[in-house]
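Exercise 7. Given the encoded structure of a 69-residue chain, write a plausible sequence.
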């Protein structure tokens, strides 16, 4: 699990920033802030996408490497 005080831009690599799930306006928010927005009622759709992108970053990077080979 990512550090709650780390900024989203620091947790997401450059290649993943080209994803449809990446939203630049959330890049300056911390992981904790994004998690709170994602679990709010009603949930913030963009925050949910960013949280998922951060949580699954390692898997997605591995998937990208396999595709290029």
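Solution.
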């Amino acid at each position: 699990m990512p550090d709650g005080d780390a900024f989203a831009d620091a947790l997401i690599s450059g290649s993943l920033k080209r994803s449809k799930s990446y939203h630049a306006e959330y890049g300056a928010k911390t992981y904790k802030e994004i998690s709170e927005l994602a679990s709010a009622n009603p949930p913030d759709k963009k925050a949910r996408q960013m949280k998922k992108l951060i949580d699954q970053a390692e898997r997605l990077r591995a998937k990208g490497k396999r595709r290029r080979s």
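Remark. Residues 8-68 form one domain. Students should compare their own answers with the one above.
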